Amino acid sequence: MISKIEAIVYSFRAKFPDCFADLKPWAKNDTTKQFTDPNSIDIGFHFPNANFDCRCRSILMQVRIHRDFEQQDYKAVGIQLSGYEAYREQWQFSTIGHWEFSGISNPTSEAQELLKQVCCQIIQLFDNSQSAYRQ
Questions:
Q1: Going by C-beta distance under 8 Å and a sequence separation of 6 or more, which residues neighbour residue 121?
Q2: How far apart are the first and last CA of the chain?
Q3: Ordered alpha helix ranges (H), 16-70
Q4: For residue 14, what pLDDT is reported?
Q5: Nearest C-alpha neighbor of 8 from the set 21, 24, 25, 18
Q6: Which residues are 21's β-sheet partners?
Q7: Residues with Cβ within 8 Å of residue 100, at least 6 apart in sequence
Q8: Measured between alpha carbons, how far is 131 from 120 in angstroms, rounded to an integer?
Q9: Given this model, what pLDDT does residue 86 score?
Q10: Cα separation of 56 and 36, whole Å?
Q11: How far apart are CA 51 and CA 111, in angstroms?
Q12: Whether the Cβ atoms of residue 58 and residue 26 lie closer than 8 Å to each other
């Protein structure tokens, strides 16, 4: 699992090299406790300044996972991304459903494509037989 987390960070930073990863993105309080999911890998990606293309300063990634006890492996069920600027959510994206962005200030089409590519790489990391990316 550690190597998969490293691969997730590497995939994201390959597309957005100026960001840094936060492997413990949740503040320890009652408000954020409701978002903590034991069946997900949560990583925050922070830009040193607001990223114009992503329309945010931070991106929270939640990789929802399912443990396959028969094969002793983990599968990625889906990925959710949220872009934040000054504690306010700007946009959301989910690989569950139609792979569409929604929010008050969505990333540029180029950044959307890069984020979708990262999600596809992550899903393939957990299951090489699955072709996840949909246009």
A1: 11
A2: 29
A3: 30-33
A4: 97
A5: 21
A6: 45
A7: 93
A8: 8
A9: 84
A10: 22
A11: 10
A12: no
Q: What's the CA gap between 79 and 65, in Å, rounded? A: 9
Token pair listed for 46: 């922070």
> What is the Cα–Cα distance from 135 to 133, expressed in whole angstroms?
7
Q: With contact defined as beta carbons under 8 Å apart, do 82 and 91 qualify? A: yes
| CA separation for the pair 87, 39 (Å, rounded) | 25
C-alpha dihedral (90, 53, 41, 126), degrees to nearest 10:
130
What distance in Å separates the CA atoms of residue 102 and residue 112, rounded to the nearest whole number?
11
Strands 40-51 and 56-68: antiparallel
pLDDT of residue 130: 43
What one-character DSSP code corresponds to residue 69?
T
Per-residue pLDDT of the chain (135 residues; tens, 9 = 90+): 788 889 999 999 999 999 999 988 665 555 555 555 667 889 999 999 888 999 999 999 999 987 766 666 778 899 999 999 988 999 999 999 999 999 999 999 999 999 999 999 999 998 764 444 444
Rounded Cα–Cα distance for residues 63 and 53 (Å): 22
SS3 1: coil
Residue found by looking up tokens 């990583």 in the block? 43
